[in-house]
Every structure is written in C-alpha cells, then in structure tokens.
Give the backbone structure.
Amino acid sequence: MIAPPPNATRLQAALHDATLHYQAGRLAEAENICRLILREHPNSPETNMSLAIVLKDQGKLADAEIYFRKVVDLVPGAAATHNNLGNILFAQDKFEEAEACYRRALALQPDLADAINNLALVTVDRGGATESVPLFRRYAALAYGGGGDFGREQILPHKLQHDEEQRAYVSGGNGAGAPKFHLEEGARMDGRALNPDPSNGEIAANWENVSPQVAVLDNLLTPEALERMRQYCWRSTMWHKSYPNGYVGAMPEHGFACPLLAQIADELRETYPAIIGDHPLLRWWGFKYTSQRKGINIHADFAAVNVNFWITPDEANLDPESGGLIIWDKPAPLEWTFAQYNNPNAGETIRKFLADSGAKAITVPHRANRAVIFDSDLFHQTDQINFKEGYLNRRINITMLYGRREAAAS
C-alpha cells in the first residue's frame, strides 16, 4: 500500500487511507473510515466532502446531500462547494434547488466553467432550452476557447481529418489563419424558420392512431434557415466528440447551441402540437460523418418524441435510395432501461428482440431538408452511408429529443 505523505497528521493519514480504499473501489471501507474520522473531527471539510462523494458513488443520494450541505456550511465562500451541492440535488431531480446552488456558485466565481455548464443543463431540464443557449455557448468558450485541456474528448484519426478539412474550408486555403475556436452566431430568423406543415394537419391528426408512429416531412426549413444551419455546422469548431464508427458529434456543451436551433425547436412544437404537445426539448445534438463509413448502431432514445433532420445537399449522396435512417416498427419494452438498449453491446439483444417480435424495418432515404419524427422508443440506426468525398459533402444530421419516456408512457 502507498504510504501517506511524510509528516502527515493522523487526520491526513486516515484520509489518505480512505482515498486508497475509494480508488480501489472499496466504497464501504472508505465510508467507514470517513465516519470514524468525523467522530474526532466533525468539522473537517475534506472529510465531509470525501464522505459525501463516497455516499454518492454508492447511490445513497439523500445521505450524500447531508454531507454536501455540511461542506457548504463549513466553507460558504467556496464556489465549488455550492456547485457540488447543486450536482447532488440535480441527481435527485430537485431542479429548482440545484439551480439556486449553481447561481450562488457563479455569484462567487463567475467563470466557474462546471457551474455554468451545470446551470445550462438544469435550465434545460426545467424546460428552458432557449434560456440555456447563452450558457452553453459561454461554457464552450471557456472549455475550448481558452487553451485549456479540460472538457476535451478523445481524438480519433477521422476527427483529425475532419478538423483539417474544416480549417481549410474556413480559411479558404490550407488552414492557415483558421481560428482554433469559433461559433457562428446562428441567429434567429426574423420570420419563420420552418415551412408550413405539408400535410395540412393530417399527420398530427392521425398521430395517436397510427402504428408505428413515424412521420416523414420534406422541405422542413425555409431556404434561408437551411443555409444558416449549414453555415453553423460547417464553420463552428464544436465537433469535439469522436465515435469509433467514423463520425464526430457536437453536443450543446461543445457549442451546438444557438438561437436558430431554439427557434426551430419551438416552431416544431407550434407546427405539430398534436405530436410534440407540451413535451419540452430536453436533449439535442449534431453528428457529422465520414463519407463511406458505418454510422450509428441500432438503438433507441430515452425520450418521448424524436425529431431527426438532414441538411447535407442531395448531390453529395451517391445513392439516393439510402444514406438515411432505418426504423423498426416495434418499440423497446417499457421495462427496459436506458442501459439495456442504448449501449455499445446492446445490438445482439435488440436484434433478437426484434426477430422474436416479428418487427419490420422501415427505410427512410436521405434527402436534404428532410425530417423524420417518430416515437423515441422505436429502435433505429443509420442506413448505409455512401457520400462523396469532401468537407461539404459530409452527411450531417441534427437530432432533437422532446419529453421524458415515462411521461409519454403514462
């Protein structure tokens, strides 16, 4: 066992021992040591914090909250303590209290990046996706624009290739002079971003009675909104997440947050109220793909309604009958958890379920400005990708998830 630091006090030595147990995954032993220390040193901030973390990692959230609150009482002027308390409240769906903690943290330390991101996340979960946009952008600027290393994702070769192509596009040459960090404004439209419902309300009227719940909408965005969305995705340096299948992702905390996206989300609800209804926008992202690689594996999304739309020009697609989405007509069983149907090793289990239930696949080919709205419980995967080489030819899809799965099932 690693020895405690030289000249350590009894408290430091005991905390060191607890840390070793924690790092080895022996959480019960770490908890016991922390509790023994607190008998002698009840006001030790480090020990109270250590016990809170150990309890949280054991899933004892209510107990952990007690000790996170004790740390705040002991060190009220430390922004990180309020942020940590906010996190344990957030994990218990105490959104209003969590938000108050994050705001107190930022009042003490306005550029505490974690608290900015956490405030954005809790704002979304409280139904305030539009209000979260400036917070996500501020976090992205701190995480990726300041030269620091925090918040960065694993970099795979296809991401390096993407970034090189993007720098060349933005600079109009070999990439020299391209900014290391840049987010397009992505401003709201003065008029509407969405075209009128092409079905004149028929799709929404039949939604509750149709099975499977899948709607395909062409010409989703107005020409100006489509072009602005393309420029946002082509020029913004927000594609920070690498996936083994050869695509990169942009999440809100990476900078995939702009007023135009919020406008599109709001107008989708206004245009299709019978489908989206009161479900808030809770998650969204963008994916950009290598020209001829496999896309997203079979999965379902833990939400109520999924809106997926594509913005890459049609001429980029070498096979007009593919490149889109495959959706199966059988939803995931309600008793399945997120981990059961949305992890890298779930494919075999899902396909067996689909085969046993006689599920049939629906293929929706890629079209520029085409949206697919469907029940998020339906299993789906990216269809075969066969696009032209070149930066502007990369397939781009944008996904918006509305509502919670349990709300849709009730």
About this structure: Residues 10-145 form a domain with the Serine Threonine Protein Phosphatase 5, Tetratricopeptide repeat fold (CATH 1.25.40.10).
